[in-house]
Design a protein that fits this description.
single chain, alpha/beta, Aspartate Aminotransferase, domain 2, 2 domains, about 35% helix, binds 4'-deoxy-4'-aminopyridoxal-5'-phosphate, transferase, pyridoxal phosphate
Length: about 450
C-alpha cells in the first residue's frame, strides 16, 4: 500500500514516555514509522528486524492483512457498543474461539484491555470466588520475587521487581512472595527447563504454615518469567506449586501475558508444561498487539461459583468500558485466524531447536555469562559493569538498533522473542547481528 512516510515531529516534549529514559531519548530519538512482516522501518529509512515482536506481542508479524481488514470493517459496521448489560456478536465469537483453543478446563473468558488489567481482574476474581463460596477469610495473595504482573496496584503488590514497587507506597496488604527460581550457580547455559530448583515451590508450605491455608486466596506466577529476564521454571516446579495449592484450596493463577498465543509453540504455557492453573491471564498476542485487549480465562469451577444467585443479579462487580470492545474483538478473531491459517504456533514449535542452537552459539562471546531459551524466546545475560548494572545491555540495544535489529533489555539481560512467522534465514540474520554487537561491546 502506498502511503506518505510520517514526519518526525519537531517537538517531543509533551509525550511523557512510559518505562523510558525520557531526557536521554529525546536527545537521540529512535522512531519507527512503519512495519511489515518481520521488519520495522525507521524514520531515516532503515529496516530493523523485529527481534522482540514489539513488546512480546506482535506474534503474527506486522501489517497482517486479515487483521487490518477486520479492524477497518468493524470500525465501519459497529464501532462501539456498551460493555455492560448489552452485547455484540464479535465478543461472543472471540470468547468461544479462545475457549476452543485453550486447554480443556478453561471454558469462560472475561475481557480486559491489557495485561495489567487481566492481572487485576484475575486477583479480584480469585478473592470474590472464595467470598461467594463462604470462604471469605481467604484474602491473602502470593506472588514471587522477580515476578512481573503489570503496573497496577495489585500487579505491583504481587510482583517482585523492586524498582516497579519502591516508589509507590505501601501497596496491597496481605501479600507474600515465593523465592524466584533463578539459580545461576546450578543452572547456567541450560537449554529449556533447568534441572535444579523444583524444591523452591515448597516455600509455599512455609507461607501456609505461617498464615494458615484457609487465609490464602491465590498464588500468581508467570509459568515462564519473561520481563524479569526470561527465567524457565525448573523441572517439577510448576507441578509442585499445583500440588500444594490443591492441597490447601488455594487458587493457582498463571500469568500468560507473554506465554499465551504461541510463544512456546503451544497455545498456552499451561498446555506446554502440562500443568493446569485455575485462572490464566492473557493480553498481547491475543490481538497481535494491534489493538489493546486482554482476557482472563476461567475454569467452570470458578465461573459457576458465581452463577448460583438470582438470575437478575449481577454476578461479578467488575468490568471495563472497553471490555470486549467490538474493534478489539474483531482484531482478536482475525489474529487467531492468522495464527491458525499460517500455522504459526507450529512454525514456532518447528523452529525451536534451530533457534536454540543459534542462540547458544553465542556462548563464549565477551561478557556472556548465561543463555536461556524455550520455544521462540531467548535470553542472553551479560556480566554487569560495576556501578552501572544496566549499561552494557543497553549499549548492546543501541548498537543492535544501529545495525538493524530490535532487541529488548532488562537489567543486564537481553531478551529475544521474534514474531512467530520468522524463518531460518531471519534467525541467522538476527544472531549474526547480535554476535557482531557482542564482539564489539565494551
Ligand atoms: N504480565 C506479564 C507476565 C507481562 O509480561 C506483562 C507485560 N510485559 C504484563 C502482565 C502487563 O501487561 P500490559 O503492559 O499490557 O499491562
Amino acid at each position: 500500500m502506498a502511503y506518505d512516510t510520517p514526519k518526525v515531529p519537531n517537538d517531543l516534549s509533551a509525550f511523557w514516555m512510559p518505562f523510558t529514559a525520557n531526557r536521554q531519548f529525546k536527545k537521540n530519538p529512535r522512531m519507527f514509522v512503519s512495519a511489515d512482516g518481520m521488519y520495522y522501518k525507521t524514520a531515516d529509512g532503515r529496516d530493523v528486524l523485529d527481534g522482540t515482536a514489539g513488546l512480546w506481542c506482535v506474534n503474527a508479524g506486522h501489517n497482517r492483512p486479515l487483521i487490518t481488514e477486520a479492524i477497518q470493517k468493524q470500525a465501519a459496521e459497529l464501532d462501539y457498543a456498551p460493555a455492560f448489560q448489552m452485547g455484540h456478536p464479535k465478543a461472543f465469537e472471540l470468547a468461544t474461539a479462545i475457549r476452543d483453543m485453550a486447554p480443556d478446563p478453561f471454558e469462560h473468558v472475561f475481557f480486559t484491555n491489557s495485561g495489567s488489567e487481566s492481572v487485576e481482574t484475575a486477583l479480584k476474581i480469585a478473592l470474590a470466588y472464595h467470598r461467594v463460596r463462604g470462604e471469605g477469610t481467604r484474602t491473602r495473595l502470593i506472588g514471587r520475587e522477580r515476578g512481573y504482573h503489570g503496573v497496577n496496584f495489585g500487579g505491583i503488590s504481587v510482583g517482585g521487581i523492586v524498582n516497579n514497587r519502591k516508589f509507590f507506597g505501601s501497596l496491597l496488604t496481605g501479600v507474600d512472595h515465593l523465592p524466584h527460581t533463578h539459580l545461576p550457580d546450578q543452572n547456567s547455559f541450560v537449554r529449556g527447563q533447568p534441572e535444579h530448583g523444583a524444591y523452591l515451590a515448597e516455600d509455599l508450605e512455609r507461607i501456609v504454615a505461617l498464615h494458615g491455608g484457609d487465609n490464602i486466596a491465590a498464588v500468581i506466577v508467570e509459568p515462564m518469567a519473561g520481563s524479569t529476564g526470561v527465567l524457565m521454571p525448573p523441572k517439577g516446579y510448576l507441578e509442585k506449586l499445583r500440588e500444594i495449592c490443591t492441597k490447601h484450596g488455594i487458587l493457582l493463577i498463571f500469568d500468560e501475558v507473554i506465554t499465551g498465543f504461541g510463544r512456546l509453540g503451544s497455545s498456552f504455557a499451561a498446555e506446554h508444561f502440562g500443568v493446569m492453573p485455575d485462572l490464566i491471564t492473557t493480553a498481547k498476542g491475543l490481538t497481535n498487539g494491534v489493538i489493546p485487549m486482554g482476557a482472563v480465562l476461567a475454569t467452570s469451577k470458578i465461573h459457576d461459583a458465581f452463577m448460583s444467585g438470582p438470575e437478575e443479579a449481577i454476578e461479578l462487580f467488575h468490568g471495563y468500558t472497553y471490555s470486549g470492545n467490538p474493534i478489539a474483538s474483531a482484531a482478536g478473531l482475525a489474529t487467531l485466524r492468522t495464527y491458525r491459517e499460517d500455522g504459526l504456533f507450529e512454525n514456532a514449535a518447528g523452529l525451536a531447536n534451530y533457534w536454540e542452537d543459534a542462540l547458544h552459539s553465542l556462548k563464549g562471546l565477551p561478557h556472556v555469562i548465561d543463555i536461556r531459551n524455550m520455544g521462540l524466546i531467548g535470553a542472553i545475560e551479560l556480566e554487569g559493569i560495576e556501578g552501572a548494572p544496566t549499561k552494557r545491555a543497553f549499549n548492546a540495544f543501541l548498537q543492535a538498533y544501529d545495525k538493524g535489529l530490535l532487541i529488548r533489555t532488562t537489567g543486564d539481560i537481553i531478551a529475544l522473542s521474534p514474531p512467530l512467522m520468522i524463518n531460518k534465514a531471519q534467525i541467522d540474520e538476527l544472531f549474526g547481528i547480535l554476535a557482531d554487537v557482542l564482539k564489539n561491546l565494551d
